[in-house]
Amino acid sequence: MNKGHEKDEWDSGVPRPSEALPGLDQEQLRVLRQVGRQWHRVAPRSATEHRALPVNPDTGVFPPAADIHPTRFGQLVRVSSLGGGVSEQRADGADEAGRSPVGRFAHRSRRVLLGAPLKSTAVVRESMRKLVALPVLSADALSSVAYGPEAMLAVLVLAGSTGLAYSLPIAATIALLMLVVGVSYRQTIRAYPHGGGSYIVAGDNLGLMPGLMAAGGLLIDYVLTVAVSIASGIAAITSAIPSLAPATVPLGLIMIALLLVGNLRGIRQAGVLFAAPTYAFILAMFALIIGNLADSAGSGFRPTPAPHPTATEGIGVLLIMRAFASGSTAMTGIEAISNAVPAFRPVRWRNARTTLTWMISLLVAMFGGIIAIVHLRGVIPRGSETVLSQLAHLTFHSGPMYVFVQAATAAVLLLAANTAYNDFPRVLFLLARDGHAPHIFLRQGDRLAFSNGIALLSVAASLVFVVFAGNTDSLIPLYAVGVFLAFSLSQTGMVVHWRRVRTRHWRKSLTFNATGALLSTLVLITAAITKFTSGAWVALMAIGLFFLLATRIRHHYQKADAALRLHPDATETRDRAGARAPAPAPTATPHPVQPEGGWPDHETGQGEEEKEETPQAVHHLAVVALASLDLAGLRALAYAASLRQPTLAVHISPSEEEAQRFRGYWTTWGDHVPLHVVLSPYRAIVAPLIHYIEALHRQRPSLTITVILPEIVTQHLRHRLLHSKDAARLRRALRPLPKIVVTSVPFHIS
Amino acid sequence: MNKGHEKDEWDSGVPRPSEALPGLDQEQLRVLRQVGRQWHRVAPRSATEHRALPVNPDTGVFPPAADIHPTRFGQLVRVSSLGGGVSEQRADGADEAGRSPVGRFAHRSRRVLLGAPLKSTAVVRESMRKLVALPVLSADALSSVAYGPEAMLAVLVLAGSTGLAYSLPIAATIALLMLVVGVSYRQTIRAYPHGGGSYIVAGDNLGLMPGLMAAGGLLIDYVLTVAVSIASGIAAITSAIPSLAPATVPLGLIMIALLLVGNLRGIRQAGVLFAAPTYAFILAMFALIIGNLADSAGSGFRPTPAPHPTATEGIGVLLIMRAFASGSTAMTGIEAISNAVPAFRPVRWRNARTTLTWMISLLVAMFGGIIAIVHLRGVIPRGSETVLSQLAHLTFHSGPMYVFVQAATAAVLLLAANTAYNDFPRVLFLLARDGHAPHIFLRQGDRLAFSNGIALLSVAASLVFVVFAGNTDSLIPLYAVGVFLAFSLSQTGMVVHWRRVRTRHWRKSLTFNATGALLSTLVLITAAITKFTSGAWVALMAIGLFFLLATRIRHHYQKADAALRLHPDATETRDRAGARAPAPAPTATPHPVQPEGGWPDHETGQGEEEKEETPQAVHHLAVVALASLDLAGLRALAYAASLRQPTLAVHISPSEEEAQRFRGYWTTWGDHVPLHVVLSPYRAIVAPLIHYIEALHRQRPSLTITVILPEIVTQHLRHRLLHSKDAARLRRALRPLPKIVVTSVPFHIS
């Protein structure tokens, strides 16, 4: 909690784009200053001299605006610089692909689909009124009643009429659970007014591992929210139009594609568009419940007997527990409000709490009402038609009200899927910020959306949807595990939190949270055990895999950060080395063939470390790899020689005869640069050159060897096949070698 | 013919590995000398100074052999240099992929499959005795009787018994054609003692276009030789073992794979292994013919009536012509001996002619004999069993002789396919040498095989085999066109040749060649017309496509050669520029911020041309692209500054806030290098940087801008995903810009 402030700002849900560029801490700044002094001490003159540039770096003023005319660079226009206004056209200007016709087409399609880019400053804090926040944030939770009761009944019906009799007590338990968890989350809202997602609460209070477990549960949960909501939404549609049933999978993929594009555009979580479906759904559900109750009132609330389902399993504790776990999926999405406290108007936490109370009340009422009328009307789950659709048919037949119920259900479910699109990339962003996920998830696209996370969610959800053929029943067993894992960890975290902070009413809050944590954990265990073979193992495995992966990623980033970090050791080594072998004043011998003090005798150790932070610590050797003495080769040689560092030319020759010929050319040219010919009797080019350069490196590990490669660049991609790819292959092969700098001198053929 | 000498040496079939490295002509040498003088004139001191290197380029002597111990480079060992013995281990040493476990596995598999690499000097001229040359070179031609007669009969049988009656006269015509073409090729052997392939003869005498047409015909021909021979060989096997018939396609692909591996190993065209199948086949055919004749003698050579085939088409000129064109496929491979004259023992051309005569005699005898016994025994083509197999069954029943006939047939057909594997890459090599095919076909693999050509043939043949389901009948219509196109052009070329050279007996030779050319052309036209719809159009289209492609490739290479060529214009421009604006003596101002004579006023024109052949013509600006001031960034800065050229650092910042922070770090460090921050409000990194560098370039086009990129290199490929790929993306995006040199300064995280 000591780094609470920084976190708080972040958790507020307004990610800064500069997060991908981490800052330096005090120690690193000290080292930086120290390194800088070393630069200054030895090369003051050259440093000043270098300040004079042959160009004006502020390109915004040169050439004058009137001078701008289309160059061969086509659509690329003026670059304005820091402080100046940045024209939309410029920074928009098609990424590197933008020049080829394919690239231009891709760019245009992108703009049509996704819209013009948005500036970072376009990130605004949303402040929602409670009446707007309620529908936006509770779509996920409320829409769960579309599949939760049905999932429960689908298990109970296995035991026939005997099983169905248990639906009322199980539903009552679930409703109680909803209340407990709701009250528990009210405590979280108070404690984390900047937003308390499960990952943050669990990580803050329980430590890294539980935090990661919660994050894994959440990510799985979001993927399944998309899959289940869309499966359920399509079921609402196919119940109304049965002829669409065979197209379930393509329809689902189309919906995911729509969500993908919409979210890449950067759909904001607000406005009437998002409030309407939820209110319509609430209206539809209450109409449904009241209508059915009214019909039932005619028969004196005597339950219509269910159509004698054949029992395939005996009733037992396991079956009841399974039904309970399935029904608990009606609770998914309860946590949404506690994550989004900053989105409320002030006093934020108080408004959020009120909204949560409303939501829980609605949820319990709708869940209870549906179970009640299901019981009264004797409806049982059927593969081809959802329970809600059956109930709607009973009361509204196929009239406009029936269509309204189905349409509202489908719409709210799509909206619930969209909620996952908002939260999944944000959890990944938080994970990436802490080094548990690849840094690409830190990046916001030019529409301010976390494009990579959105894309990943779409791919994962599509995969799940296709594998389970868009069948809600098959998806439910996977669903509960992730949700309740996150619930349990988050609420356990709150228990620890209250014990630690002991603010006002902490005992009461602790009790509520502890109850919530206990019950959630019980559901989690129930779900994991009873549903293990029918799908929970997939979710558990996925969470385990995520945990493993996140740990490995974290490990690598820590190693990388340690390697990249400015640390005092490096400078001190340099200081000592400097004292022993003072670097030459560059003005005295402008092209030092050898440092005046001789080569550092510990050069192997120092040299391999790639820690030359000062120019005088860099000892150069330029190696020009030449295949032939054509213009491209000569240019590379001229470039190398113009650097005024020791230069060596290397030619790989397939035969003694060719080697002689090349030496002849070299003599004709004037032998201005030492030439070494390596014979490659097996005609390979890359391997011998790599070996040769490696041998040079081993000879004097303190040298920085710049390998200069002439590279022919063709205008058209299709011509690239016609030229040797040796330069690219060499570059790739030289990558792993330490202290080898690769320079490509291009030669353009248009 | 004036470049005859060089060609002759090449056509001898011993390609030099240095062909991929073209030489310089007199004009280019003159230019080279001139450029060299300019280097000398201005920078004599620095040139001498630079000769002192911090390393010994002859790495073979350093470190002493005893000092070698395994480094982190693992299997890479000592590099010996020009003149020294090259240890097998070294130049063999796994290409760049060899370090990763996958790479090592690939490398080992390669060695097991393909064997140890071979030195270029291992190319030896084969000198074959006639009795060895005959089977090796005539496998293709002789094996054609396995499918030629059957293809003819398959057409005639469509007209029922009436059609079959025409088999004898058509066969007689084909036999005559064989004799004429044989005699015609005897002339080619005399005129082209170094080997006269159709591409060379047609190209030499008729010009570029006919040469390319011939080459296209040949390439198609070789692909079809593989497909038809293997299809026919498998038919021989499935005739004997009908249960294998459903596996035709996989069997064929396995055979192509075997040929691929065998030829990548570099199978030599000699030895008993290759002589045996052909002799066995000749033996088998004569046994078959004699056996059947003997059986037939019992019935007084009275033809057994064919089993009343039902006529589906009426007999007509078109059908007879189609039968003739199909039967002509028995002639494929006749040209092999004339291509391979240098492979004979001296007097080469005389021995080759004798062998050709033998081959033609055998071919005519076998072809005639088979047609005769087919007629006598009343055999007609059946889908499930080849004609040869039916004939063998009739005489030898299912005894060991039957097995021998079938085995010999399959073996010789596989050998015929192997012939194509020798010739296809060679034709591609010749095409690539002349710039009509990508230069990759010039390369010999480490087993001295033209690996790329071999791979291309395998892919093409597999494709054709799969598309036509390994059905000989469907492949035959494609076959004749390519063969006879090459025949016609080659022999027409010879007619022109004789008219030009008028050596002894030229009139007689001209007459023979003219007859051959005429008849071949007639067959070509017949085949193209009668078989157009049944497949010839595919072959014709492929030839046309090849022609188009080859022309485009040639065009590009010519442009590239012209661009790369050392030409006097460039130097003269430089001379004049030098006179106007003498370059500064590098010792006076070691770090010229501006040339003493000022920037050339025509710099746009000169600068964009990338023709700096002298160091003093290169004006530097180093631009370091920095994301953050970590060790990798500082190293890149130190590297840039150590080059002692004007240096500018550029930072792309997503927000004003981050820009300020970065400027703060810069000041802390000491501001040793001018810094320019580009604001990227849409968070893109690559595009703004490209635009900025492009703006710098436009400001002063004569500058060579070196973009220095710090690049994090991870040890494991899987970690690469975790780091920004911006460096690689920048490199790709900067490629098309003129005069931008890209330098990657690696920072290794292990």
UniProtKB/TrEMBL annotation, chains A, B:
Give compartment(s): Membrane
Q: Which residues cross the membrane?
A: 131-158, 164-185, 247-264, 271-294, 314-334, 355-380, 400-421, 448-470, 476-498, 510-529, 535-553
Q: Please name the GO terms that the record assigns under molecular function.
A: transmembrane transporter activity
Q: Which GO terms describe its cellular component?
A: membrane
Tell me which InterPro entries the record gives.
AA/rel_permease1, APC_K+_Transporter
Comp. bias (Pro residues): 583-593
Q: Which UniProt keywords apply?
A: Membrane, Transmembrane, Transmembrane helix
Chain intervals for the UniProt region annotation (Disordered): 1-25, 572-615
> What is this entry's stated membrane topology?
Multi-pass membrane protein
Q: Where is the composition biased (Basic and acidic residues)?
A: 1-10
UniProt keyword Transmembrane helix, yes or no:
yes
- Protein origin, superkingdom: Bacteria
Q: Does the keyword Membrane apply?
A: yes
Location (main, coarse)? membrane
Protein name as it appears in the record: APC family permease
**From which lineage does this chain's organism come?**
Bacteria, Bacillati, Actinomycetota, Actinomycetes, Kitasatosporales
